[in-house]
Please model this.
Amino acid sequence: MVIKTHLEESEFTVTDVKKRERRRNPIPPFTTSSLQQDASRKLGFTSRKIMMLAQQLYEGLEIGKSGHIGLITYIRTDSNRVSESAQSEARSFITTKYGAEYLPDKAPIYTSKKNAQDAHEAIRPTSVELPPESVIAHLSKDQYKLYSLIWDRFIASQMTAAIYDTLTIEIKAAQYGLRATGSHLKFAGFMAVYTESKEGEEQDKDVDLPELTAGQSLKTYKILPKQHFTQPPPRYTEASLVKILEEKGIGRPSTYAPIIDTIVTRGYVEKIEKKFQPTELGCLVVDLLKQYFENIVDVEFTANMEDRLDDVAEGEIPYKQVLRDFYQPFAETLSHAEEEIGQVELPVEVSDVQCEACGRFMVVKKGRYGSFLACPGFPACRNTKAIVKDTGVTCPKCQGAIIERRTKRGKVFYGCQKYPECDYVTWDTPLKEVCQTCGTFMLKRGFKKGGAASVCGNPACPTQVESTPKTSKAPKATKTTKATKTAKTAKRRNKSG
Model:
């Protein structure tokens, strides 16, 4: 507060103004790792889904009269290399569509990481003559999204750098030095097609500062003191976990998705708001592994083993020696661990819900589809119950409780507890606050372009932002995709033209 007081009493004077030009270079086309990271951040897909869709695009689809065509190159690669023919096609396409100013003098050459296996190119479209718009009618909505991402990244990688005008203003106030920085996009370059997403960071935004000169006095409008504290490292998302696996040399491009899938399906972690959080089982397993298999769960172990296997492939070390060096000490450690650990049971979480069959307090168990309540008297008593999350909101149809439910794929929706007698359901989150216009409960509605808003749960209320999802049926994915809608629209326009 002392600094704030000094500043409020001081005169602000511009001491220096620096104008510069900053270039932001394009990034290379996708590798397996960067594809999983970017598609996870931009499209919200899991690593497993990304690789499944990429495999479909690689194997090929029926593209109208052209027949069966593979749309992208091989999807398991850590190389940034691009063939000369593909670069030549891309340069012609860029010149035609965007103009010569978007084309660099020479085709860019991207270097791969040190231990990359260069057998396959980077992930790119097989033909520049098949832009996403031309095949949209033949792809599913998710296939189209991923193909567009791969297409945009490849085309952008062959374009010129983006250019920013930057402005740095140094300001003096009493004994304090202040700085204001701003930037403005002067030439979009590759950013006219594609901008890379970053974990936990905002994209570059224009920050315009007024034209000032050295020696100019400034008028103080407001002083906002802010104190920053050291934050703990953020929890891993799928994108950041793939990134750290690649940085640490753990696994290969083809193993990132199975690694993530394994720790989730075995219950070692759970996803909460797209971030991984360790479960009690996960913490217990890690503690045991660190205690008895310290050398193997070390981060460097997998990377070192990968290097030794590479040496075997190159004929520098006999494979039997590598097996012998690993297995003999591992077998001894494993035998010792089996004797010491025995059978481990997780602590039981007791609920306040009584079993209707025998009167015992039920315990929380984890199953294939999440947590549920079970009687501790199993197998004598086999009573189980779902864990109900009550929203505290009353159903508008039958006055029952609206509870949280999940689809078979784990997507959350909300419905009446009296289902199937009452069929009220909604994808939007019911809120305890009520509408000031009609008194109906409010819904928290998320939007495709980001953000959320509170809207009235009554479809007929004038406070509606957009129509409420129909409640006569359980939420169900529509069969009409964006691709088919676009194709039908184009067909109608052709007929009318």
The longest strand covers residues 12-24. The CA atoms of residues 61 and 67 lie 8 Å apart. The two ends are 69 Å apart (CA to CA).
